[in-house]
Amino acid sequence: MTAAKQGLPSAACGGSPALSLAGIGMGANLGPKAATLLAAWQELGAIPAIQPLALSSPWRSRPLDMQSKGEFVNAVALIGSGLNPSELLQLLLTLEARHGRRRDPKAPGHQDRPLDLDLLFFGGLCRQTATLTLPHPRLAERLFVLAPLAEILPDWQHPLLRQSARELLELLEGAGQQVQKDRWPDPVP
């Protein structure tokens, strides 16, 4: 069942509900990848200001824009957030660090990681600061983000491109990127 049919908070601009719908891209290419993503999902759900709403299937992909032999496992999580976007971003960075992610600003390009959490969108907010751009600037270019997003929220509208997750996915299919839908090792809590 898609998130839209489950009666989730609206992603459209407008009023300020108690919780804002946020999309989080999850990925890992080191360690027990799927287990790490599930652990991060559970940790998010334990935070009082976060309401877990939906988690996509895991999707396997090859590294994009980086040199690595490690295949990625990716997913998208939908949450209701009582935090503002900057607070949520800081929380995601803290969760990454807790799972062993070490960011090296001096290292060129992307590095292998045990956990990567990206704030993809926050309601219909469009924002660009030194630390956060919403929606995520490469969301529409990444099959490993669009496939899981379209799985759980196909009608989500990109606030700048005015296209749905499903439409953006169709534009990227056949463009050289490959993803493979997988299954979680155990029932998702």
UniProtKB/TrEMBL annotation:
E.C. number: 2.7.6.3
Any one Gene Ontology BP term: folic acid biosynthetic process
Enzyme's top EC category: transferase
Residue ranges occupied by any 7,8-dihydro-6-hydroxymethylpterin-pyrophosphokinase domain in the UniProt entry: 24-154
Molecular-function annotations in GO: 2-amino-4-hydroxy-6-hydroxymethyldihydropteridine diphosphokinase activity; ATP binding; kinase activity
Keyword annotations: ATP-binding, Folate biosynthesis, Kinase, Nucleotide-binding, Transferase
Gene3D superfamilies: 7,8-Dihydro-6-hydroxymethylpterin-pyrophosphokinase HPPK (3.30.70.560)
Top-rank taxon: Bacteria
UniProt key word Nucleotide-binding: yes
Transferase recorded as keyword: yes
Functional pathway: Cofactor biosynthesis; tetrahydrofolate biosynthesis; 2-amino-4-hydroxy-6-hydroxymethyl-7,8-dihydropteridine diphosphate from 7,8-dihydroneopterin triphosphate: step 4/4
Membership in a protein family: Belongs to the HPPK family.
Function: Catalyzes the transfer of pyrophosphate from adenosine triphosphate (ATP) to 6-hydroxymethyl-7,8-dihydropterin, an enzymatic step in folate biosynthesis pathway.
PANTHER family assigned: 2-AMINO-4-HYDROXY-6-HYDROXYMETHYLDIHYDROPTERIDINE PYROPHOSPHOKINASE (PTHR43071:SF1)
Protein name per its UniProtKB record: 2-amino-4-hydroxy-6-hydroxymethyldihydropteridine pyrophosphokinase
Organism lineage: Bacteria, Pseudomonadati, Thermodesulfobacteriota, Desulfobulbia, Desulfobulbales
